[in-house]
Amino acid sequence: MEDKMEGKVKWFNRMKEYGFITGTDGKDYFVHVKDLTEGTQLEEGSDVTFEPAEGDKGIKATKVALKAA
After folding, report:
1. DSSP letters along 26-62, please?
2. Segment 19-51, tens digit of pLDDT
3. Coil, helix or strand for 57?
């Protein structure tokens, strides 16, 4: 898989601590709160960078950070 990727937060539920990011490749990546970089809080529509990885149930995003403006 690629090293770094960009995407947009499709949705993220803080109570359940997970959500999905739509990558620039058009695929949806699962994201869990443990895969966010320190201090990162996701909001629907936020632009992010992440590293794609293969998870137990499909593709996921790791090392997720808000994209610098």
Report:
1. S-EEEEEGGGBPTT----TT-EEEEEEEEETTEEEEE
2. 999 999 999 999 999 999 999 999 999 999 999
3. coil
